[in-house]
Amino acid sequence: MVGTAALLLGLYLSVFFVPYPLFRHHAELAGFSVYSDREIPEGFGQVFADARHRVDQMELYHGAPPPRIFICRSRRLFVFLVRLAGKRHAGQGLLISAAGNAFLSADGIESVARRNRERPAHSRLEGSWSAAVAHEVAHHLMFSELGLTRARATPVWKSEGYADYAANAAAAGPQTDSNLRSRVRLLLDEERWRGFSGSVDRRHFRWHVLVDYLCTIQDLDFHDLMDEAVTESEAWYWLMEWYDQSPSSPAPE
Fold first, then answer.
1. Which residues partner with 29 through β-bridges?
2. Is residue 59 classed exposed, middle or buried when 0-12, 13-18 and 19+ CB atoms within 10 A define those classes?
3. Peptide bond into 250 cis (omega under 30)
4. How sure is the predictor about 198, in pLDDT bands with cuts at 50, 70 and 90?
5. pLDDT digits 0-9 by tens, 97-139
6. d(CA 251, CA 253)
7. Whole-number CA gyration radius for the chain
8. Which of 177, 99, 103 shows the shortest CA–CA distance to 135?
9. CA neighbor of 134 nearest in space, from 81, 187, 59
10. 91 phi and psi, to 5 degrees?
11. CA-CA distance, 177 to 247, in Å (whole number)?
């Protein structure tokens, strides 16, 4: 049993800390070290230029090198990495912050884009490569800011909601009350979220909207948001109170 545990630990460390043999294609793009298990598309220079713009505008970014990005074109490879990391679900990305490595799933990102037809814009539901890269960078910055123990103890609605908010804020531009009301209206549209995948998407979109509201309307900074006194139930109550008192807004596109 001890030998098996040592073998698994060795596999974990080698795969996540020195994954280069699995990702033989490499490019330096807009300050990111990018690796892939297949050829990196030529158009990814613009993808990472956009990701760089998003990261540069993040509250927690102070110029440190971002995590290395490993692109999994093979779904099997990404699922293997997710399982090895002890995760249950294979989404769009996987961050191993201690190693400074982030793994992105081409299938995960592009299937979300197809399913949702790249809407709503400026959210994880858009299926944007640039947003996916920035999302993992935001998580990495949160780990650096809070430390491993506190970061892992952060409620998922805050960690995922903030990563989505930070990854998309620069692309979305200055937030307005009307824009946010439009997103809340979409969030409350029951028809939009029917089905299992819709319920999962809705949960993540709710977290994004909650953090967006707290940061743009309530003007909370990162450490204010991380305060234990800020709970999901209270944030939802404040959001609904604000929304009910706001003028009606047109339906989002």
1. 32
2. middle
3. no
4. confident
5. 999 999 999 999 999 999 988 889 999 999 999 999 999 999 9
6. 7
7. 19
8. 103
9. 59
10. -100, -130
11. 9
